[in-house]
Amino acid sequence: MQRTFSKPFTQQEPISEALIERVSDIMRTGRLHRYNTVDGEIAEAAALERDYAAWQGSKYCLACTSGGYALGVALKAAGLRAGDKVLANAYTLAPVPGAIHNAGGVPVFVEIGEEWRIDVADLEAKAQSSDARFLMLSHMRGHIGEMEAIVAICERYDITMVEDCAHTMGARWNGKRSGNFGRVAAFSTQTYKHINSGEGGLLTTDDPVIAARAIIMSGSYMLYASHGAAPEQSVFDAVKLTTPNYSGRMDNLRAALIRAQLAGIDDSVRRWNERYRALEKQVAASPHIDTVERPQHEEFVGSSFQFRPRISVKDMPAFLTGCSQRGVDVKWFGAAEPKAFTSRYDSWQYLAPQAPLEKTLKVLETTCDIRVPLTFDEDDCAIVGAIIADEVNKHL
Known about the structure:
This protein is of the alpha/beta class. The protein contains 13 helices and 14 strands.
């Protein structure tokens, strides 16, 4: 009899009773809006900005409605103008090109390598040929690129880097936190990310002008002093009359959820990586599945796992069905049509057509992805890995 798996891949850990009580206290006051405070009170959203900036090691932080909103505002606050080209790795999720489009930019997609990271050689070539002024670097599924080389390219061609850290909150490259390489970074606290507030986003930067513009754009009106990690008033005075309000504020309920979970994120990273390694051990043991050896100097967050079975593309649907029937939810990035959260760069037909990225398409044609929720234990992950390997063997 075939082994099956019964735990859901979308189940998160429960919110603690202490945090439920804290949120209830905020609800009892009725002061849910971040600027609705009484004398001497620091709003939960402002306290979150203060705490997250300190944890991230950045000077400024803005709490906002979503990671996608933070990405778009980051571009606008960094000076993007309508029609500006924005380099972006071709392997990412739909909110990234959506944020570029919403901000008025034009994506120029860059190839990826077999390890799912941005191709540095293609990045250099397109930085030289495209006249792009921005790079939106997506650390897709937690795979951090060769950051020293990427930073050097941006400096060489005067390109402003915006880091999409939706999948790398808590990760480091050569000891430096993800998000601290570019001019500005965006993080997500959507349910399937590393802190769960349903929806939510954070923007960090050391640039006071970018911070001031982003805060005004988020809908601060003239209440700049109510923010927990903001530049001085003089910086706002210089930009306040030329910066629009896009109303993307975070409320105090979500801020409380995020702030409480921030204290435990390092432990969560440890637990994710234990599960990731248990899954990796089973999958990588198969000679018929390609995985990626993580660089020793990359401190990643193993909240998802990627692999490529060595089977034909035509067998992929049957492989996915076999996994699903045994309770293992595998996503496929090589499908011709978008499904659930997965899509390819050529799925986003609201953008101008681009030349085919043959290397990226080849890598993605058998790229599979699964979530690694903390509601699994290491034994669960070993079972999931064994089922995946068994299903691959059926198509050799």
